[in-house]
Amino acid sequence: MAIISPILQDYRKKHRIKQVGCFDGNKSKFISVPFNVRTPINGYNYYFDADSSLDGDKVVISEIAVVSATAQAQLFTSNGSNSVDNYPSAQLNRGSLYICDINQQVISVLPLSSLCAETNGGKPAFTWFDTQVWANCYILFQTQLTPATSYGLGFRITYFDKYINA
Q1: How far is the C-alpha of 124 from the C-alpha of 19, rounded, in Å?
Q2: Quick one: pLDDT at residue 157?
Q3: CA Rg, the chain, in Å?
Q4: Based on CB atoms within 10 Å of each CB, which residue in 40, 53, 111, 129 is the most buried?
């Protein structure tokens, strides 16, 4: 029997720590945020399309990752509809992902650079969002970007149904 300190036990219960190298969640979905402009406008909220399968009443989002165009090419056969741009970390530092609830209150603000494994030492960004409404979540850039094209950003959302861990 392993002896676990009360602090570690509390952190595990509140989902504040994870095992090293684990993949959290049993489902994963690729989501793209198209910019529909040549250069994303700073100060403009780029909302995600509504997706009730990612709302907090059904699932817990346990990991969010920015998917680069290089990684996407390895994962998908792109037909242009889900294409994303490659943004260097200096440009990802200019934007944040806002996770919001049903009342459009911000639950969390995540810098985009912290969601990119390539710029985060290969580590995933573990989360625990269970009250979000996906259609209320958005990306906001603080300063102007200069992308090579205007496809947008891609995200891999890892989650599990709430009833699994009930």
Answers
A1: 12
A2: 92
A3: 17
A4: 40
